């Protein structure tokens, strides 16, 4: 009787977006108890995400490359929220600024695990560090442009310089970084209020 060769079904390749979503969830669960991202192995990430270790390496070279991919998404959401103010700083009201800052803080809070992994990995991964500072420098550059536009329109505080942007952007990042994961809405609102006060009074002449 002739033998029958059975063809094995080709292994389904998960799309990168599905793998990323699974890994983000796994990362959040693994670091929820205060564990550092550095201490989490690829094996643990893959197991917690419900994917094979080989699937991880099919999409990412290492944990650093995973963080870079997730960083792109996080910073994209932060910049989208910031656009509420950055796109029209001359016409903006303090409520426009509040909406922008609230959206930025919300994006950081939603992707808190990614933000912490990003900062932690940047300390030893040169490529992640370069990308992190590149994103921060871009945000600072956009804020500098907004300040110059406010100055040209005659709405800026006397003596304010574009260098203020560096302090304001890093103040936002640091305050978002230190917000606890279980922060109550009232606690988040206080941080947003403080940031609005800081940014508005640092830049604008009219103290609305």
Describe this structure in words.
With 208 residues, the protein is mainly alpha-helical. It has two domains: 13-60, Arc Repressor Mutant, subunit A; 63-203, Tetracycline Repressor, domain 2, CATH 1.10.357.10. Helices cover 69% and strands 0% of the residues. It has nine helices and no strands. The radius of gyration is 22 Å and the shape is elongated. The relative contact order is 0.11.
Spell out the blueprint of helices and strands.
Layout lengths: L15 H16 L10 H8 L3 H7 L3 H24 L7 H17 L1 H11 L3 H27 L11 H15 L6 H19 L5
Helix pairs in contact: 1-2, 4-5, 4-6, 4-7, 5-9, 6-7, 7-8, 8-9
How much β-strand is present in the residues? under 5%
Given as residue ranges, the uncertain stretches (5+ residues, pLDDT < 50) are 4-12
CATH topology (fold) name of the largest domain = Tetracycline Repressor, domain 2
What number of domains?
2
Q: What is the typical, i.e. mean, pLDDT?
A: 88
**Number of helical stretches of at least 4 residues:** 9
Q: Distance N terminus to C terminus? A: 90 Å
The coarse silhouette is: elongated
């Amino acid at each position: 009787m002739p033998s029958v060769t059975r063809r094995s079904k080709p292994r389904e390749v998960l799309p990168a977006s599905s793998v990323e979503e699974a890994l983000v969830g796994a990362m959040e669960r693994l670091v929820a108890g205060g564990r550092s991202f550095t201490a989490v192995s690829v094996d643990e990430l893959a197991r917690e995400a419900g994917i094979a270790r080989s699937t991880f390496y099919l999409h990412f070279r290492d944990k650093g490359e995973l963080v870079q991919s997730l960083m792109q998404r996080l910073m994209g959401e932060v910049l989208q929220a910031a656009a509420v103010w950055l796109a029209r700083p001359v016409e903006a009201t303090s409520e426009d600024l509040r909406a922008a800052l609230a959206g930025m803080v919300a994006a950081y809070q939603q992707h808190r695990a990614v933000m912490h992994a990003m900062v932690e990995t940047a300390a030893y991964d040169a490529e992640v560090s370069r990308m992190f500072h590149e994103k921060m420098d871009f945000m600072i550059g956009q804020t500098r442009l907004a300040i110059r536009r406010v100055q040209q329109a005659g709405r800026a505080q006397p003596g304010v310089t574009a260098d203020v942007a560096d302090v304001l952007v890093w103040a936002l990042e640091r305050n978002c970084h230190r917000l606890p994961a279980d922060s109550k809405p009232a606690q988040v609102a206080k941080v947003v209020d403080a940031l609005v006060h800081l940014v508005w009074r640092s830049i604008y002449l009219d103290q609305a």
